[in-house]
Specification:
heterodimer; A: 317 residues; alpha/beta; TIM Barrel; 8-stranded parallel barrel; globular; B: 153 residues; mainly alpha; 6 helices; 50% helix; elongated
Chain lengths: 317, 153
């Protein structure tokens, strides 16, 4: 396995990934502009797959643009928009284009996006898809059993949400995802450290953290109003009342939101079994390098955090 | 009817016992079904299955019934048809992210499984759905398979 994430996980390094919303444009410069703010601060960048069921540039294309310019992209593939024929073909295509890290998700319902009249495909769920990709890679065959002539060397990613019911069942489902083939996990936003710690205790009891790199989702909240809106309207977001109260009481809510985020990042770094963080700083992307630097979460890293390889590196590798 | 669906989950254990008894009887009758020809009984039996399962479970006749593993909650009622759930969008009150008035199908499955003799069946990994079997009878498939298994042992 040659992927960067696999390498960092095997080396026991604390990993930082982040997220880029692909643009509503056909201009590659728009992708690069969005990526540039992360320079020097993160190991890899997810390109979301029309998240929230809102249409954007394809994740595959966004990842290829990022890769061509030295970034390490993580592709996302949602079951919402394609059937198994399209998805298996896309996995082969992505691997052929050099994309190694792919996150497979069920995806948001179309009702939450800008095309609520679209047909929700959901031919597979995320666990079935993960199983199929693992079979393609390890057994060299499609779900149909037909042989591949070249296998996709993919490091398989998945998502989880430790903060929604049923809390006990969540970890069992995570175990099922990992058994199906997931090798790294990116979670929903963590705003509740005690709940996360309970979740991680269960993860450790099943030794899941040894089988997959668990990256916990974090992000700065801009204000109490934003936090309340997110809690109300974004599926799967859990924000405790005391966090909202802190934001409401602050004279500078934006700075308070970033301080809360840094505190959570530090708590995560000190939690056994957490392999890293996945930073989702939607509309506050510019603060990501500062958050990572100030939180000191990478202080103990032995390998440098390289967001973007130079063009010479690209030629020699 | 969502109310009936929730009732069925509450009585998952009893419904499973009734189903198992019926299944046992149907397998016993295998020689009769063969004489009549499975092709001939398929249509009427599929209609009976459809009516019963639609009433009790809001069944979608996917043709690959997993009710006996999912606490009598049909995963095809999940708006994302997640057969290995629940997804990460479950609301704090256990309702569906897509359809806020509806309880999450998988939260129902967890509730129903507690009333079943083998709650751990809920953790089985379900294989991708074969959409070509949509509308076909799961009962006939099971009876045929069980009868064949019995003969081979």
């Amino acid at each position: 396995m040659n992927g960067k994430l696999a390498h960092l996980f095997a080396a026991g390094e604390f990993i930082v990934t982040t997220e880029l919303a692909p643009p509503d444009s056909a201009n590659p410069d728009d992708v690069l502009q969005r990526a540039a703010v992360f320079d020097g601060a993160v190991d890899a960048i997810n390109a979301t797959d029309s998240s929230g069921a809102n249409c954007h540039m394809a994740s595959l294309a966004t990842c290829v643009i990022l890769k061509q310019h030295g970034y390490h992209p993580i592709m996302q593939m949602s079951c919402r928009d394609r059937n198994r024929i399209a998805m298996q073909g896309e996995v082969l295509g992505a691997a052929a284009l050099g994309l190694r890290d792919i996150v497979f998700i069920s995806g948001d319902g179309v009702q939450s996006g800008d095309h609520p009249g679209a047909k929700p495909v959901f031919d597979l769920d995320s666990i079935s898809l993960i199983g199929i990709v693992k079979t393609m890679r390890d057994s060299g065959q499609y779900a149909s059993g037909r042989k591949l002539t070249g296998r996709p060397d993919v490091f398989i990613g998945a998502v989880d949400n430790p903060f929604v019911p049923d809390m006990d069942f969540r970890v069992m489902r995570l175990a099922k995802k990992i058994a199906a083939g997931a090798q790294f996990i990116q979670t929903q936003y963590c705003f509740d450290v005690p709940v996360l710690k309970q979740y991680m205790a269960k993860v450790r009891a099943l030794e899941l953290h040894r089988q997959a790199a668990i990256l916990i989702g974090v992000g700065p909240l801009a204000s109490a109003k934003t936090a309340l809106w997110m809690r109300e309207h974004v599926p799967g977001i859990h924000i405790p009342d005391h966090i909202i109260a802190r934001l409401a009481a602050a004279t500078d809510p934006k700075q308070e939101g970033r301080l809360i985020c840094r505190e959570i990042m530090q708590a995560l770094r000190d939690t056994d079994g957490v392999a890293g963080i996945h930073m989702m700083a939607y509309r506050q992307e510019e603060c990501v390098p500062e958050l990572i630097r100030q939180s000191q979460i990478l202080a103990q890293r032995r390998m440098p955090c390289v967001t973007r390889n130079s063009v010479t590196d690209l030629i020699t590798h | 009817m969502r109310k009936i669906r929730y009732w069925s989950v509450t009585h998952a254990g009893a419904l499973l016992r009734i189903y198992r008894t019926l299944e046992w009887g149907m397998i016993k009758l295998d020689p009769l079904w063969r004489r009549l020809g499975y092709a001939r009984i398929e249509k009427p039996l599929t209609s009976v299955e459809t009516v019963i399962k639609q009433t009790l479970f809001d069944c979608k006749m996917c043709g690959q019934c997993v009710l006996s593993q999912t606490g009598m909650a049909c995963p095809m009622n999940c708006p994302k048809q997640v057969r290995n759930g629940p997804c990460g969008g479950v609301r704090g009150n256990g309702h569906c992210e897509v359809n806020p008035e509806m309880r999450c199908v998988w939260m129902e499955a967890i509730r129903g499984a507690e009333n079943m003799p083998q709650p751990s069946a809920l953790h089985n990994t379900q294989q991708p759905l074969n959409h070509a079997r949509q509308g076909q009878s799961s009962w006939i498939m099971t009876i045929k398979k069980r009868s064949a298994d019995r003969e081979s042992t």
